Amino acid sequence: MYLDNAATTKVHPLVKKEMDKASFANYNAKYYPSALETKTQINDAISTIAKCLDIDEKRIVITSGATESNNYIIKGLFSKYPNKHFICSTIEHKSVLGTFEYLETLGMNVDYVKPNKNGQITKQSVADLICEDTVLVSVMYVNNETGVINEIPEISDLCKEKDILFHSDVVQAIGKCQVDFSKLNYASISAHKISGPKGVGLAIIDPENKPVPLLHGSTQQNNNRAGTLPNELILGIAKALDLAINNFEENHRNILNNRKKIIEFLDENLGDDYYLNFTSNTVDNIVHVGIKGEINQIFLSDNAEMINASTGSACSIAEPSYVLKECGFTDQKIRESIRLSLPMYGMLDE
Ligand code: PLP
Fold this sequence. Notes:
This protein is α/β, with parallel strands linked by helices. It has helices at residues 13-20, 33-53, 66-80, 94-105, 123-127, 152-161, 231-246, 248-270, 296-302, 322-326, 331-336; strands at 60-63, 85-89, 109-113, 134-138, 165-169, 186-190, 201-204, 274-277, 286-291, 337-341. The strands form two sheets. It has a seven-stranded mixed β-sheet with strand order 1-7-6-5-4-2-3, sandwiched between helices. A three-stranded antiparallel β-sheet has the order 8-9-10. Helix 1 (13-20) runs antiparallel to helix 7 and helix 2 (33-53) runs parallel beside helix 7 (231-246). The radius of gyration is 21 Å and the shape is globular. The structure holds pyridoxal-5'-phosphate. Pyridoxal-5'-phosphate is lined by residues 65-67, 93, 95, 140, 144, 169, 171-172, 190, 201, 315. Residues 65-67, 93, 95, 140, 144, 169, 171-172, 190, 201, 315 line the site of pyridoxal-5'-phosphate.
């Protein structure tokens, strides 16, 4: 059973089919038919993305993935506001945390907000760190290891009230939560977590307050990101979003069925030898368990024939989870922890 869908997903057959339709010509070319075909296809795909997310097309910047989106937004706003104060959480994905840590070496003033004992970043904990100079708060929507949903609408309202910009890495929320993009000045999205292709993502920006570009060069994407547009990948991410967002209810029912199946499987095979972690305010596709007395890495490699899962984030697999540490887990509990992440499409045993 593949239970590592929070790390990456298989490309959906309808996404593949859509990508195969892509015209090869350069989006910026003119005069000849294949160029015009590319223009129509990409414009249609961007309009699909805008409709799915219920945002203006001007807010969309195509990137190579959420790592780039996070780097672009955070570095781009630091370039604009180098002397201001920033806030981010201690349980962000490394592409956010690593960016803040790097910018600290360049003189950024940043404070880190910790989760409560349930693994959640609350409005109050952010409020406690806000000062007169705070310009940006960055808090992820759903944590990629624990599946806990942070108090995003509340934090957004707080930021708006205090005239502070708000960024959220919404990678793990797409298709799992109803994300209201009007509440986010900036957001980061990745296609490969929702059965789209690897190597493409979105930065959702405020067109009235654009981050300084990460990639300079030609004038593509309204000067927000230089580089030839990847036709196939754009068609792919548009289709993946269409399937994830416009079939939300059906996908959610599927996730719930898969969740029921995995709990039955764990009960049958492990009985009292396992326990569930993070049981409130979570997405349904992430089941975080502890296997009593086991060492997660050994357990997973010994049982790889049966279960393909991970101990936490695929990006920092060699180290004990900093996220679980921040949530107050003991070393033993961290060692016992396994993240099972369920598919949004198809049943588990298919
Ligand atoms: N943010 C979160 C929450 C993630 O889970 C991931 C995936 O690893 C990323 C960012 C990075 O996304 P990408 O692989 O598109 O760079």
